[in-house]
Amino acid sequence: MEVTIVDSQRLAIQKKIDKVLCSKADVTSCCPIKDILARFGDKWSIYTILTLGKEEKLRFNELKSQINGVSQRMLTVTLRSLEEDGLVSRAVYAEIPPRVEYSLTPLGEGLLLQLLQLADWAKLNINQILDARERYGNKEMQA
Amino acid sequence: MEVTIVDSQRLAIQKKIDKVLCSKADVTSCCPIKDILARFGDKWSIYTILTLGKEEKLRFNELKSQINGVSQRMLTVTLRSLEEDGLVSRAVYAEIPPRVEYSLTPLGEGLLLQLLQLADWAKLNINQILDARERYGNKEMQA
DNA sequence: ATAACTAGGTTACTTTTAGTAACTCAAAGG
DNA sequence: CCTTTGAGTTACTAAAAGTAACCTAGTTAT
């Protein structure tokens, strides 16, 4: 149970990594994984996608109240960038007061499914990570 | 091919999301997915994990030259935080000039496998995202 | 013997990005 | 005519990412 990657897997993994990393020269221009991860590196994007995943449509203030701690500006900025990438769609109804409904696009739902897979791994391993952090903290103390 | 999530899946997904989001109150304290994603939200962590995945051990400057564009400080900071979380291990040899070897821990290799899965999705869908961005850019122009 | 090189960092500084608080719009209700 | 409502902006501050120059201590080259 010590080794996660066995030698037979290693070669295939190395090939895959090479493809993911693209050639060294143009990491910034073509690397899809960087692009995708940059998308939810900021903490609000994940919550926004997950929250929108629960109900098919949500209005701005419904989202704001369900995503605990987000400010208006941060939610606006997050939604705009998700919309820009085609992960979230925004429907504006010309009413007063205004009504705007947000929902995941099919592409956004696809990403949601990936996030949930990652969440499964996270749930299984979070304790190992927390333990490691604690050990590291103790080591720091001594130094 | 339009709809990614069919109704039969919807309920299971909603349940999963609820678990992932934890209760609204303690998002900051317990949410594993936030913790995991926060880990490679910064752009260098992904590259570091992927690069370490290719070879079992790498020295500081080998890493630095393989991760195109990273500065010494950023690599140091990134490696320290990965080490803190138990994803990367750091072996120091008391020589002059110093030798320090970095490698993925089993936990880190587990995360690597997850990242590669995500990369598969990213590769399949990056064009849709780039197209959406272009459309959005054009819409902006008109406004 | 001193200048430059090495590996693996730090320190001090600058630029981006995240985040907060207060303001806007236009109509409806009191 | 003053407040409320929903969905945002604007102007500002705090925090994070990133850069450039420096450090250490022993080895080789001049």
Description:
Two copies of one chain form a homodimer. Chain A is built from seven helices and three strands; from the N terminus they run H-H-H-H-E-H-H-E-E-H. Chain A is mainly alpha-helical and 143 residues long. The first copy, chain A, has a single domain, classed as Arc Repressor Mutant, subunit A (Orthogonal Bundle), CATH 1.10.10.10. In chain A, strands 1-3-2 form a three-stranded antiparallel β-sheet. In chain A, helix 4 crosses helix 7 (106-142). The model of chain A has no long low-confidence stretch (mean pLDDT 87). The structure holds a DNA duplex (30 and 30 nucleotides).
Largest interface by Cβ-Cβ < 8 Å: A-B, 66 and 66 residues
The figure for the number of domains of chain A is 1
- The assigned structural class of chain A equals mainly alpha
- Uncertain ranges of chain A: none
User: Approximately how much helix is present in the residues of chain A?
Assistant: 55-70%
**Oligomer kind:** homodimer
Describe how the helices and strands are arranged:
2 copies of one chain form a homodimer.
Chain A: H1 7-21, H2 27-30, H3 32-41, H4 43-54, E1 58-59, H5 60-66, H6 72-84, E2 88-93, E3 99-104, H7 106-142
Antiparallel strand pairs in A: 1-3, 2-3
The structure holds a DNA duplex (30 and 30 nucleotides).
